Amino acid sequence: MFKKNGFKKAQKFWVKSSKVLRERFKNGFKAILPQRFTKTILPDRFINLFTRRERILTFFTFKRVKIFLIFLIGVIVGVLIQPYIQNYSKPHFVPNEYLCLAYDTARRHDLDYSLLFAIIQQESAWNPKAVSPSGAIGLMQIMPATAKGFCGLSRKQLFNPELNLECGTAYFVQQLNNFGSVKLALCAYNAGPTRVRKLGRCPHFKETTQYTKSILKKWKGG
User: Fold this and answer.
1) What pLDDT, in 10s, does the model give residues 140-187?
2) What distance in Å separates the CA atoms of residue 218 and residue 196, rounded to the nearest whole number?
3) Closest by alpha carbon to 209, among 181, 176, 188, 187?
4) pTM of the predicted protein model
5) Roughly what angle, to the nearest 10 degrees, separates helices 96-108 and 113-124?
6) Which of 141, 114, 111, 112 is nearest to 126 (CA)?
7) Which of these, 62, 57, 29, 64, lies nearest to 43 by C-alpha position?
8) Helical H runs in 90-222?
9) Residues with catalytic annotation?
10) Measured CA distances, 97 to 25, 35, 119, 126, 136 (Å)
11) Greatest pairwise CA separation for the chain in angstroms
């Protein structure tokens, strides 16, 4: 990468040399060729050649190159994070089908349906195609490793709303039975049961704290 000073020196050198050569071409052709030939297209092509080079070097200043590189990096980053932005920024309509599935699943597992609704709203905003940056998938945002070990589901099957709800609800109910508290069960669902069991409380993670408070507020509010 050229340094700023070196780039400016090179630019000044080419601009100066192009001016000198342009004058030499003009004077040379006037001295050697008859006057009627000096007005032909041949000398103008040589003159325009150096004029174009001068314009190009003047345009590609250090500042403009730096702005272009920043813009290019921004485009690349935007393309990479676009799938995650689409998953969480778009408002997602909640079909009655998902509400009915969640209600039936909660009743089948003897779980308060309003609590399950609050978890789904917090996890995926009822978007069955949601994928988090960490790789959690679907309505209940289940990690593929958890789905495979606990429910025997593949990554592809997690995009099925019915299977995702069944697996996620069964996993949460297990945490609820193990810890005997909705708050601890939510912490275990978010941060992992091993960490909660080891500490005997919710870990002091900002994400887990906000996650638990938000669901409890939605649940009690509902």
Assistant:
1) 999 999 999 999 999 999 999 999 999 999 999 999 999 999 999 999
2) 23
3) 187
4) 0.59
5) 130
6) 141
7) 29
8) 96-108, 113-124, 144-146, 161-179, 182-191, 193-199, 206-221
9) 123
10) 80, 88, 17, 11, 22
11) 104
